Amino acid sequence: MITLKDVKNNPEVQALVKGAQKQIDAIGYTEHSTRHIEIVSERAGDILKNLNFDDHTVELARIAGYLHDIGNCVNRVDHAHTGAVLAYNILKDMGMPVEDRTEIMMAIGNHDEKTGTAISDISAALILADKSDVHRDRVSKLNISTFDIHDRVNYAVTQANLEMDSENRKIILDLTIDTKICPVLNYFEIFMERTMMSKYAAKYLKIWFELIINGTKLL
Protein backbone atom coordinates (compact mmCIF):
# COMPACT_ATOMS: atom_id res chain seq x y z
CA MET A 1 0.00 0.00 0.00
CA ILE A 2 1.19 3.51 -0.82
CA THR A 3 1.22 5.48 2.43
CA LEU A 4 1.08 9.16 3.31
CA LYS A 5 4.76 8.93 4.25
CA ASP A 6 5.57 7.67 0.74
CA VAL A 7 3.65 10.58 -0.78
CA LYS A 8 5.39 13.17 1.41
CA ASN A 9 8.79 11.78 0.40
CA ASN A 10 8.01 11.86 -3.32
CA PRO A 11 10.24 14.53 -4.98
CA GLU A 12 7.53 15.37 -7.53
CA VAL A 13 5.00 16.04 -4.78
CA GLN A 14 7.52 18.15 -2.88
CA ALA A 15 8.21 20.26 -5.99
CA LEU A 16 4.48 20.77 -6.69
CA VAL A 17 3.72 21.79 -3.08
CA LYS A 18 6.57 24.31 -3.20
CA GLY A 19 5.49 25.62 -6.61
CA ALA A 20 1.87 25.92 -5.54
CA GLN A 21 2.76 28.15 -2.61
CA LYS A 22 5.07 30.22 -4.82
CA GLN A 23 2.13 31.02 -7.08
CA ILE A 24 -0.21 31.66 -4.14
CA ASP A 25 2.33 34.10 -2.69
CA ALA A 26 2.59 35.89 -6.04
CA ILE A 27 -1.16 36.58 -6.19
CA GLY A 28 -1.37 37.52 -2.50
CA TYR A 29 -3.74 34.70 -1.52
CA THR A 30 -3.98 33.04 1.89
CA GLU A 31 -1.51 30.30 2.78
CA HIS A 32 -1.92 26.92 1.04
CA SER A 33 1.48 25.39 1.79
CA THR A 34 2.73 22.64 4.08
CA ARG A 35 0.98 24.05 7.17
CA HIS A 36 -2.44 23.96 5.51
CA ILE A 37 -2.11 20.60 3.78
CA GLU A 38 -0.75 18.94 6.94
CA ILE A 39 -3.80 20.17 8.89
CA VAL A 40 -6.24 19.09 6.17
CA SER A 41 -4.56 15.70 5.82
CA GLU A 42 -4.72 15.03 9.55
CA ARG A 43 -8.31 16.24 9.95
CA ALA A 44 -9.63 14.32 6.94
CA GLY A 45 -8.19 11.09 8.28
CA ASP A 46 -9.32 11.75 11.84
CA ILE A 47 -12.91 12.39 10.72
CA LEU A 48 -13.18 8.98 9.08
CA LYS A 49 -11.24 7.27 11.87
CA ASN A 50 -13.69 8.63 14.44
CA LEU A 51 -16.54 7.33 12.29
CA ASN A 52 -14.96 3.85 12.41
CA PHE A 53 -13.86 3.63 8.79
CA ASP A 54 -11.16 1.06 8.05
CA ASP A 55 -7.48 2.03 8.19
CA HIS A 56 -7.09 1.84 4.42
CA THR A 57 -9.85 4.39 3.78
CA VAL A 58 -8.46 6.64 6.52
CA GLU A 59 -5.02 6.58 4.86
CA LEU A 60 -6.52 7.44 1.46
CA ALA A 61 -8.27 10.42 3.05
CA ARG A 62 -4.98 11.59 4.56
CA ILE A 63 -3.27 11.31 1.16
CA ALA A 64 -6.10 13.21 -0.54
CA GLY A 65 -5.79 15.93 2.09
CA TYR A 66 -2.07 16.26 1.55
CA LEU A 67 -2.37 16.46 -2.25
CA HIS A 68 -5.59 18.45 -2.56
CA ASP A 69 -4.00 21.83 -3.38
CA ILE A 70 -1.13 20.86 -5.72
CA GLY A 71 -3.21 22.18 -8.64
CA ASN A 72 -2.36 25.69 -7.45
CA CYS A 73 1.03 25.07 -9.04
CA VAL A 74 -0.73 25.28 -12.43
CA ASN A 75 -3.19 28.08 -11.63
CA ARG A 76 -5.52 29.05 -8.81
CA VAL A 77 -8.41 28.87 -11.27
CA ASP A 78 -9.65 25.26 -11.58
CA HIS A 79 -6.94 24.13 -9.17
CA ALA A 80 -9.15 21.32 -7.89
CA HIS A 81 -9.46 19.76 -11.34
CA THR A 82 -5.85 20.11 -12.39
CA GLY A 83 -4.72 18.93 -8.96
CA ALA A 84 -6.90 15.83 -9.24
CA VAL A 85 -5.29 14.85 -12.55
CA LEU A 86 -1.79 15.60 -11.27
CA ALA A 87 -2.40 13.49 -8.16
CA TYR A 88 -3.82 10.60 -10.19
CA ASN A 89 -0.77 10.45 -12.44
CA ILE A 90 1.73 10.75 -9.59
CA LEU A 91 0.01 7.98 -7.63
CA LYS A 92 -0.13 5.84 -10.77
CA ASP A 93 3.63 6.22 -11.22
CA MET A 94 4.07 5.28 -7.56
CA GLY A 95 2.18 2.04 -8.14
CA MET A 96 -1.07 2.77 -6.30
CA PRO A 97 -3.98 0.55 -7.41
CA VAL A 98 -6.37 2.21 -9.85
CA GLU A 99 -9.33 1.95 -7.47
CA ASP A 100 -7.49 3.87 -4.76
CA ARG A 101 -6.07 6.61 -6.96
CA THR A 102 -9.49 7.07 -8.57
CA GLU A 103 -11.03 7.67 -5.13
CA ILE A 104 -8.38 10.26 -4.35
CA MET A 105 -8.79 11.95 -7.73
CA MET A 106 -12.56 12.20 -7.23
CA ALA A 107 -12.13 13.72 -3.77
CA ILE A 108 -9.58 16.32 -4.87
CA GLY A 109 -11.59 17.22 -7.96
CA ASN A 110 -14.64 18.00 -5.85
CA HIS A 111 -13.17 19.90 -2.89
CA ASP A 112 -13.69 23.43 -4.27
CA GLU A 113 -17.02 25.06 -3.38
CA LYS A 114 -17.42 26.66 -6.81
CA THR A 115 -17.48 23.40 -8.76
CA GLY A 116 -17.56 20.47 -6.34
CA THR A 117 -19.66 18.64 -3.79
CA ALA A 118 -19.40 15.58 -1.56
CA ILE A 119 -19.50 12.52 -3.82
CA SER A 120 -17.83 9.94 -1.56
CA ASP A 121 -16.87 9.38 2.06
CA ILE A 122 -13.31 10.50 1.35
CA SER A 123 -14.43 13.62 -0.52
CA ALA A 124 -16.83 14.56 2.30
CA ALA A 125 -14.05 14.23 4.88
CA LEU A 126 -11.72 16.30 2.68
CA ILE A 127 -14.29 19.09 2.33
CA LEU A 128 -14.90 19.27 6.08
CA ALA A 129 -11.17 19.29 6.79
CA ASP A 130 -10.33 21.89 4.16
CA LYS A 131 -13.15 24.35 4.85
CA SER A 132 -12.50 24.29 8.61
CA ASP A 133 -8.98 25.69 8.28
CA VAL A 134 -9.61 29.36 8.83
CA HIS A 135 -7.04 31.05 11.07
CA ARG A 136 -4.76 34.09 11.27
CA ASP A 137 -1.75 31.84 10.56
CA ARG A 138 -2.99 31.64 6.96
CA VAL A 139 -2.45 35.36 6.37
CA SER A 140 0.93 35.98 4.78
CA LYS A 141 0.68 39.77 4.42
CA LEU A 142 2.45 41.73 7.14
CA ASN A 143 0.77 45.11 6.64
CA ILE A 144 -2.79 45.04 8.00
CA SER A 145 -3.67 48.12 5.91
CA THR A 146 -3.31 45.97 2.77
CA PHE A 147 -5.71 43.25 3.98
CA ASP A 148 -8.72 42.38 1.82
CA ILE A 149 -11.83 40.83 3.38
CA HIS A 150 -10.36 37.29 3.18
CA ASP A 151 -7.25 38.43 5.03
CA ARG A 152 -9.26 40.28 7.68
CA VAL A 153 -11.55 37.35 8.37
CA ASN A 154 -8.73 34.82 8.58
CA TYR A 155 -6.64 37.17 10.72
CA ALA A 156 -9.58 37.76 13.06
CA VAL A 157 -9.89 34.03 13.80
CA THR A 158 -7.64 33.43 16.77
CA GLN A 159 -8.80 29.89 17.44
CA ALA A 160 -10.37 27.24 15.19
CA ASN A 161 -11.13 23.77 16.50
CA LEU A 162 -12.76 20.96 14.55
CA GLU A 163 -14.16 18.42 16.97
CA MET A 164 -15.88 15.09 16.41
CA ASP A 165 -18.70 14.02 18.69
CA SER A 166 -18.97 10.40 17.56
CA GLU A 167 -21.55 9.46 20.17
CA ASN A 168 -24.00 12.10 18.94
CA ARG A 169 -22.78 11.79 15.33
CA LYS A 170 -21.91 15.42 14.82
CA ILE A 171 -18.86 17.46 13.86
CA ILE A 172 -18.33 20.87 15.45
CA LEU A 173 -16.38 23.81 14.05
CA ASP A 174 -15.70 26.06 17.04
CA LEU A 175 -14.28 29.48 16.10
CA THR A 176 -13.10 32.42 18.15
CA ILE A 177 -13.28 35.66 16.15
CA ASP A 178 -11.78 38.93 17.34
CA THR A 179 -14.62 41.31 16.53
CA LYS A 180 -12.29 44.29 16.92
CA ILE A 181 -10.74 43.19 13.63
CA CYS A 182 -13.93 42.27 11.79
CA PRO A 183 -17.56 41.54 12.67
CA VAL A 184 -18.86 37.97 12.62
CA LEU A 185 -21.04 38.94 9.65
CA ASN A 186 -17.91 39.26 7.52
CA TYR A 187 -17.23 35.56 8.09
CA PHE A 188 -20.52 34.65 6.46
CA GLU A 189 -19.97 37.13 3.63
CA ILE A 190 -17.05 35.11 2.32
CA PHE A 191 -17.60 31.67 3.86
CA MET A 192 -21.32 31.04 3.39
CA GLU A 193 -20.72 28.78 0.36
CA ARG A 194 -18.07 26.87 2.26
CA THR A 195 -20.31 26.57 5.30
CA MET A 196 -23.16 25.12 3.26
CA MET A 197 -20.73 22.80 1.47
CA SER A 198 -19.51 21.57 4.85
CA LYS A 199 -23.08 21.04 6.03
CA TYR A 200 -23.84 18.90 2.98
CA ALA A 201 -20.58 16.98 3.36
CA ALA A 202 -21.51 16.14 6.95
CA LYS A 203 -24.95 15.03 5.77
CA TYR A 204 -23.26 12.72 3.23
CA LEU A 205 -21.44 11.07 6.16
CA LYS A 206 -24.75 10.88 8.05
CA ILE A 207 -23.58 13.27 10.74
CA TRP A 208 -24.60 16.82 11.74
CA PHE A 209 -22.44 19.90 11.10
CA GLU A 210 -22.48 22.43 13.93
CA LEU A 211 -20.91 25.90 13.79
CA ILE A 212 -20.08 27.79 16.99
CA ILE A 213 -18.63 31.30 16.87
CA ASN A 214 -17.56 33.07 20.08
CA GLY A 215 -19.52 30.58 22.15
CA THR A 216 -22.79 30.98 20.23
CA LYS A 217 -24.19 28.07 18.25
CA LEU A 218 -25.15 29.37 14.81
CA LEU A 219 -25.84 26.12 12.94
Please count the helical segments: 9
**Biggest pleated-sheet summary:** 4 strands, mixed
The SS-based structural class is: alpha+beta
CATH superfamily: Hypothetical protein af1432
| Cα-based radius of gyration, to the nearest Å | 17 Å
Q: Might you state the CATH topology name?
A: Hypothetical protein af1432
Helix content: 40-55%
Could you give the count of β-strands? Answer: 4
- Share of β-strand residues: 5-15%
Would you list the SSEs in sequence order as H and E?
HHHHHHHHEEHEE
At the first level of CATH, the class is Mainly Alpha
Mean pLDDT: 95
Terminal CA distance: 39 Å
Shape: globular
pLDDT < 50 stretches: none
Strands across the major sheet, in which order?
1-2-3-4
Shape-level CATH architecture: Orthogonal Bundle
Give the count of structural domains: 1
Please characterize this protein's 3D structure.
The chain is of the alpha+beta class and 219 residues long. The protein has one domain: Hypothetical protein af1432. The protein has nine helices and four strands; from the N terminus they run H-H-H-H-H-H-H-H-E-E-H-E-E. Strands 1-2-3-4 form a four-stranded mixed β-sheet. Helix 9 links the parallel strand 2 and strand 3. Helix 4 packs across helix 6, helix 5 packs antiparallel against helix 6 and helix 7 packs antiparallel against helix 9. The chain starts with a helix and ends with a strand.
